[in-house]
Amino acid sequence: MSATTTQLTYQDILRMFQETGLQIKETDRLIKRTDRLIKETGLQMQETRQFMQEISREMAERDKKLSKQIGALGNRLGDFVQEMVRPAVVTLFQAKGIDVREVYPNISVRRNGGGIEVDLFVVDGLQAIAIECKSHATTDDIREHLDRLRKFKDFFPRYRNLELMGAVAAMVMPDDVAKYAYRQGLYVLAQNGEMVEVRNDDAFVPKFW
C-alpha cells in the first residue's frame, strides 16, 4: 500500500488567497447591502409610523367634529320634541284629573353656585309637573330628571308649597325606559303616530316632591 502526498505549489497557494479575497469582497458586499436594506427599512418604518400618526390625528379630529354634529342634532331633536309636546300637555294632564292651565318652556335658575333647567313646566294653583323632553329617552335621562326633581324646590323656593310631579317625554321611548320611569312615579309621554299620549294606566300613582 502506498500513500500519495499532495504538494502545494506557489500557484496553488496564490489561487487560494485570490479565491479567499473574492469571498471576502462578496461578504463585504453582502454586509453593505444588508446595512443599506436595514437603513431603508428603518426609513420606511419611520415613514409608516408618521403616516399612522397623521391618520390617527385626522380620525380624532373627525370624531370630534362628528360628536359636535351629533350633539347639535340631539339638541335640535330635543327642541322638536318639546315643541311637539307643549301644545298637548295641558289637555293630556287635564284628562288625568290634573287641572293645570299654564305652560312655561325652558325655565332655569342659577343659585349658590349651582343651577337646574326644566324643559317644560306645567302648573296650576296647587300642583305642577316638571317635564324633561328627549329625542331618545334612556334610563340615565330618567335618573338625571329624578335628581332634578329632588333639587327643584331648593332652586325655586316660590314653588315650595306646590305638589310637584315629574314627567318624561320622548320621540323614542323604549319599553324598559318607560317601565323604569313608571316605577319611579313619573308620567311617561310618548309619540303615537302624529299624536302624543300619556302611557300611564289608571293604576299609576304619581310621586310627589
UniProtKB/TrEMBL annotation:
InterPro entries the record matches: Restrct_endonuc-II-like (IPR011335)
SUPFAM superfamilies per the UniProt record, alphabetical: Restriction endonuclease-like (SSF52980)
Superkingdom of origin: Bacteria
Name of the featured protein: DUF3782 domain-containing protein
Lineage: Bacteria, Pseudomonadati, Pseudomonadota, Gammaproteobacteria, Candidatus Kentrum
